Amino acid sequence: MKKLQVVISSSTVSVSLPALAVVAVVLLLTAPRPSFLGRYEPNVASLPSSSSWRSAPTPAVVARVPRDCDIFRGEWVPDNDDGDGGGGAAPYYTNTSCAVIQEHQNCMKYGRPDLEFLRWRWRPERCELPRFDATAFLDLIRGRSLAFVGDSLARNHMQSLMCLLSKVEYPKDVSNTANPEFRTMHYESHNFTITVFWSPYLVTANQSNPAGGLWDLYLDEPDAAWLAGVAGFDYVVVSAANWFTRPSMFYEAGRLVGCHYCLVPGVPDLTLRYSLRVAFRTALRALTAGGAAGFDGTAIVRTLSPTSHFEGGEWNKGGDCRRTRPYAANETRMAALDLDFHTAQVEEFRRAEAASGGVARLLLMDTTAAMLLRPDGHPSRYGHWAHENVTLYNDCVHWCLPGPIDVWNEMLLQMLLFHQPGEFSV
Ligand SMILES: *[C@@H]1O[C@H](CO)[C@@H](O)[C@H](O)[C@H]1NC(C)=O
Ligand SMILES: *[C@@H]1O[C@H](CO)[C@@H](O)[C@H](O)[C@H]1NC(C)=O
Ligand SMILES: *[C@@H]1O[C@H](CO)[C@@H](O)[C@H](O)[C@H]1NC(C)=O
Ligand SMILES: *[C@@H]1O[C@H](CO)[C@@H](O)[C@H](O)[C@H]1NC(C)=O
Ligand SMILES: *[C@@H]1O[C@H](CO)[C@@H](O)[C@H](O)[C@H]1NC(C)=O
Q1: Which residue of 192, 261, 298, 366 is 20 to 30 Å from 6, comparing CA positions?
Q2: Domain spans of the chain?
Q3: Does any ligand 4 atom lie closer than 6 A to the CB of residue 77?
Q4: Who contacts 125 (Cβ-Cβ below 8 Å, separation ≥6)?
Q5: Is residue 1 within 8 Å of 31, Cβ to Cβ?
Q6: Of all atoms in ligand 4, which is nearest to the CA of residue 328?
Q7: In testing the pocket of ligand 3, which one of 28, 204, 206, 251 has its CB within 8 Å of the most ligand atoms?
Q8: Which pLDDT belongs to residue 103?
Q9: pLDDT value at position 155?
């Protein structure tokens, strides 16, 4: 078998901001394989330690969308409101005002020439989605805790939130581990804690043969990486998708039941649709009342970020995402793997809801349709220096910061506004 070796390495030198750690990732990939968009997965640099400051306390009045407005259905429209009456939107933050932008998502730093992708806002069909209000968010979430469980897109989401909140306060890194995949950040003046748990499959996973890339997935075992950690959190945002595209063996009750693209005679290929579905079922069962996680907060299921934005080839065959504006709603629609993953996630969410007899604190954060329309929001080749002396791929998986992913937190704020603890019991 032919082997591809990919080395991604970059470092940041910044004058006044805390230096981001050097990232060095070696991925061993084995060809030939089908399309593995999820393989583009640079490891994290550790978050910089950060300073915090207090802003003058202002009682926040938060705009709420009407209850009958579905914030997940809509379109992207030009953003002409920057508050100065002059037209032209201002991004919430920049790579100088926010010190926690992941290297590979710092598109401005790496020379992205167009700013057009920052000039759109998401408009739901029946209402306006209020802009993110950092003061309101922190007031609302005072004394509470939020965990992100998932892969590098969960981290992308958390970093967007930290950048949006940086206008008011920077958190302190209070992680109890040096592992950069598990960060805990504390907002002292609001006693708000956010944590990210690395768990790209949500269930126990082990790369039995690192060189061959084959993963063993224990589909009925929630991953200990988060299971033990989430008890006591008020909110957990659960997400996963891209890693299921990797070749894997499926175990249930300790027995090999099938695989995805393992090409092992006698092992049925149940496909990645099966593994994703069962993994979500397992994770949600663990998170609902009486589940193995001992969690009694609100679980938020974030649907997948599209896997389909590579054009002109697969991720490792020259595929890229060079569009500079969003699609109109009638220019594309969810299809193929994105549609199958999305269907499985929504169905498993509904199943968990039903199984709990309607008392589960479960919320669906259905971001896929909005993000599908944003092929222009990825780093593409602006996630690294053009002249780096290494083999690099275009990143059409993660999202530039600032960028369209910031809408996830505009949506999250509205969800939190509607679902205060206690509002579920009725
Ligand atoms: C921020 O982006 C600019 C280009 O807009 C770049 O010159 C600068 O190095 C970046 N700074 C950091 C800290 O990433
Ligand atoms: C901070 O919040 C935690 C819950 O997240 C709570 O247990 C703790 O008492 C709070 N601390 C203060 C000083 O309010
Ligand atoms: C994970 O795989 C390694 C081989 O790479 C093996 O030694 C180990 O026992 C496996 N762990 C589990 C929990 O299956
Ligand atoms: C999409 O809708 C717009 C109006 O919103 C229309 O101008 C355009 O022609 C439509 N495009 C397609 C491909 O149907
Ligand atoms: C690129 O890396 C190779 C191997 O490490 C080295 O021989 C070569 O000189 C490097 N080229 C440049 C332009 O840095």
Answers
A1: 261
A2: 2-41+66-418
A3: no
A4: 69, 70, 73, 74, 75
A5: yes
A6: 1
A7: 206
A8: 86
A9: 97
pLDDT at residue 337 in the model:
97
Please name which ligand lies nearest the alpha carbon of 5: 5
For ligand 3, atom 7: residue with the closest CA: 208
Task: Tell me the C-alpha distance between 308 and 321, whole Å.
Answer: 10
| Ligand 2 interacting residues, C-beta cut-off 6 A | 143-145, 191, 193
Q: What is the pLDDT of residues 240-294, one digit of tens each?
A: 999 999 999 999 999 999 999 999 999 999 999 999 999 999 999 999 988 899 9
Query: What number does CATH give the domain 2-41+66-418?
Result: 3.40.50.1110
pTM of the model: 0.84
Helices 406-418 and 152-165: crossing angle, nearest 10°? 80
**384 and 110 Cβ atoms separated by less than 8 Å:** yes
Among protein residues, the one with the nearest Cα to ligand 3's atom 11 is 206
Atom 5 (ligand 3) nearest CA:
208
Query: Of 10, 35, 145, 152, which residue is the catalytic one?
Result: 152
Query: 260 an active-site residue?
Result: no
Residue 119 and residue 102: Cα distance in Å, rounded? 21
Whole-Å CA distances, 345 to 66, 149, 341: 26, 15, 6
- Using CB distances shorter than 6 Å, the residues near ligand 1 are 14, 17, 95-96, 106, 108-109
User: CB–CB of 418/64 below 8 Å?
Assistant: yes
Amino acid at 366: D
Tell me the two tokens of residue 283.
């994770």
Residues of the chain with pLDDT under 70: 1-61, 81-89, 358-360, 387-391, 420-426
Residue 15 DSSP SS3: coil
Q: Tell me whether strands 214-222 and 248-252 are parallel, antiparallel or unpaired.
A: parallel
**What is the secondary structure of 124-152 as a DSSP string?**
ETTSPPPPP-HHHHHHHTTT-EEEEEESH
The residues, any chain, with a CB within 8 Å of residue 94's CB and separated by 6 or more, are: 108, 402
